[in-house]
Amino acid sequence: MSLLKLILIGCAVLSATLVAQTSTSQINGTVRDASGAVIPDAAVTARNEQTGVSYKQNTTSSGLFAFAAVPVGTYTVSAEAKGFRTTRKSAQELVVNTPLTVDLSLEVGQTTETVEVTGEATLVQTQTASVGNVVTERAIRDLPLNGRNPLALLALEPGVVQRSSGAAGSGIHINGSRDRAFNVTIDGIEANESTVPNPMSNLYRLTPDNVQEYRVTTNNATAEEGRNSGASVNVATRSGTNQIHGTVLSSSATRL
């Protein structure tokens, strides 16, 4: 294989990895025993509760694990090691572009015994210093949308000022930025239109039926998304699950 082909393949793999960083998220944590000592080489599994897809890896010598570029959804995270009971945490909500930390503590016992952990309080996000908010599927589904555009909910974000359509520089402005100072990605792919840059125009043909959720970063963006001075909008489209479901619309596009 020529050197040029190897370079092209390497660039394609690298670009795919970078793209995934803004359309998915990450699950990480530490596995410890009851005394607080780390457990190396513990088998950790993260299972998507909607699709049944599982991701597996072993902890490092420091007891750490990290599942990078994982699709958003609800996960069950479990860990097992020789001489310890299996510990499982269910209903762990992973949202777009927001790392989730799940620390697991193993008790001495047989691996055939399982400890179920539920009802834990949500931890404060300490992975990044970015300022932003995740617009969830429930908000997109239940709140009124002008033209069924999920990005209309951008107008409700802190620091947003919306101007009338007849004014110069119309659209929405975040923290004093121009109405075109946005960077929009859909499943990690850049989706910006230079002639109509404001996302409220919905040139992307997004609807409540094809959007799972999206994250709006308004300040102190990370390196993956820090391109424009206004907001970074990372949209994750909806994927299938193991259950049959759908949406029925009337001729006036009203959900029934």
* Radius of gyration over C-alpha positions, nearest whole angstrom: 21 Å
Which percent bin holds the helix content? Answer: under 10%
Q: What's the name of the CATH homologous superfamily of the largest domain?
A: TonB-dependent receptor, plug domain
Percent strand: 25-35%
Biggest sheet: strands side by side, in what order? 3-2-5-6-9
First and last CA, distance? 56 Å
Total strand segments: 16
Question: Can you give the mean pLDDT?
Answer: 80
Oligomerization status of the protein chains: single chain
Compute the number of structural domains: 2
What do we call the CATH topology of the largest domain? Ferric Hydroxamate Uptake Protein, Chain A, domain 1
Number of helical segments? 2
CATH class of the largest domain: Mainly Beta
Order of helices and strands: HEEEEEEEEEEHEEEEEE
**CATH architecture annotation of the largest domain:** Beta Complex
Main β-sheet: number of strands, strand sense, barrel status? 5 strands, mixed
Task: Assign an overall shape.
Answer: elongated
Ranges where pLDDT stays below 50 over 5 or more residues in a row are 12-21
- Strand-pairing-aware structural class: mainly beta
